[in-house]
Amino acid sequence: MPLYLSRFSYTPETWARLIGNPEDRAKAAQSYIESVGGKLHGFWYAFGARDGYNLWEAPDNVSMASVALAISGGGALSSFETTVLLSVDETMDALRKAGEVRYRKPGA
Q1: CB of 72 within 8 A of CB of 7?
Q2: CA-CA distance, 10 to 70, in Å (whole number)?
Q3: pLDDT tens digits, 34-73
Q4: Disulfide: which of 1, 3, 67, 79 matches 85 by Cβ 3.0-4.6 Å?
C-alpha cells in the first residue's frame, strides 16, 4: 500500500481546547485511517513551521484523500498537507520511464 506523509497545524482554538482537556489525537488519527482500510505508522508533534506530522498507509490515493478531506473539513486545523511517498524501487521505475518521455523545452 502507498505511504503518505501529512504535515498539520492546529488553530489557536484547538490548542486552547487541548490545553483545557489534553487528548491523545494519535488515537483519533488511527481510527480515521483504519476506517478506509489503512494504517497509521506514526504521529509526531514538532517545533517549527508545522505542529505535527503523520505517516500513513492507505489502499490508494482516493482513500487517503477522503481522510484528508474529512480532517481538513473538521475545522480544528489551520493547515493540512499530504505528500505521496515513493519507495526507492518506485523511484527507480520512474527514472527508467522518464528516459522514454520525449520532453521538449518551452519555445524549442
Answers
A1: no
A2: 15
A3: 999 999 999 999 999 999 999 999 999 999 999 999 999 9
A4: 3
Q: Is the dihedral of CA 58, 59, 65, 71 positive or negative?
A: negative
DSSP states of 26-41 as a string? HHHHHHHHHTTT-EEE
| Cell triple for 45 | 508533534
C-alpha grid cell for residue 107? 519555445
H helices within the chain, ranges in order? 12-20, 25-34, 61-72, 88-98
d(CA 12, CA 16): 6
Cα gap 18→16, rounded to integer Å? 5
What is the phi/psi pair of residue 23, to 5°? Answer: -145, 140
Burial of residue 6 (number of CB atoms within 10 Å: 0-12, 13-18, 19+): buried
